[in-house]
Specification:
about 240 residues; single chain; six-stranded mixed β-sheet; elongated; alpha/beta
């Protein structure tokens, strides 16, 4: 579950999303509708939201409408016998990678403005402790630093109340907030307590460090490939 909203730098139309990501828009006349938030959680819908519901439950669309959703993404294509909804619908089934790309798109690709450091290790607690030390070192060198870690997520000195493990939408929203706060670097803990699978799709990591590097039996190349596959980042 996730949300892209607080620091979004782009408002996009439904026609752009349909054309760029291969959705079918119903009705086609709704192409000019502009969305200002993206979420896959009905409870986080706010006015202007695009709600992604690949596996919608009964009443979800109605609940989203009452909360102010401007449009929804539903699995499949509209049948001729299907009754129209009260909001525009984008029919499709976005992959995890596409979800990451959409969230980055709506957030204005915030990682383009940050030096992204990632730390991995076999022990999550040790990895998270190392993230804090790396962030402290970067701060000592004069860099405004953000941290994404289950132990402590913050933008500069501001605590970020994230519910870990976070997904791609949360990551992009968090990075956008960090950019808005003036951060120039972010240090991310690569562990399953911090990140959900695919959470770093559409994110390019500039520096990848491994706590276990140099230890006997550790193949850092294989570890790097496994981490890229699990979390979706490029290096």
């Amino acid at each position: 579950m996730g949300l892209v909203n607080e620091a979004m730098s782009k408002h996009v139309t439904l026609s752009y999303l349909a054309g760029h990501y291969g959705f079918t828009l119903d009705p086609p006349s709704a192409g000019g509708v502009t969305v200002t938030a993206l979420t896959d959680d009905v409870d986080q819908v706010r006015p202007g939201s695009l709600l992604i519901l690949p596996h919608a439950q009964a009443g979800d669309v109605e609940t989203a409408m009452t909360r102010g959703a401007y449009a929804v993404v539903l699995d499949g294509r509209r049948d001729d016998d299907h009754q129209p909804f009260g909001v525009p619908v984008l029919y499709g089934n976005p992959t995890v990678d596409e979800m990451g790309a959409m969230s980055a798109d709506l957030a204005g690709s915030p990682s383009d403005y940050l030096a992204v450091f990632a730390v991995a290790g076999s022990d999550a607690d040790e990895t998270q402790a190392t993230v804090v030390r790396v962030a402290g070192f970067l701060h000592m060198l004069g860099n405004p630093v953000a941290v994404i870690s289950a132990a402590e997520s913050r933008s500069l000195e501001r605590h970020l109340p994230l519910r870990h493990p976070i997904h791609a939408l949360d990551v992009q929203n968090t990075l956008a907030i960090c950019v808005e706060d003036g951060a120039s670097a972010v240090v991310i803990s690569l562990d399953d307590k911090t990140l959900a699978e695919g959470a770093l799709c559409s994110l390019s990591v500039d520096v990848l460090g491994c706590v276990d590097a140099g230890r006997q039996g550790v193949d850092t190349d294989r570890l790097s490939a496994r981490l890229r596959d699990r979390y979706g980042f490029t290096l």
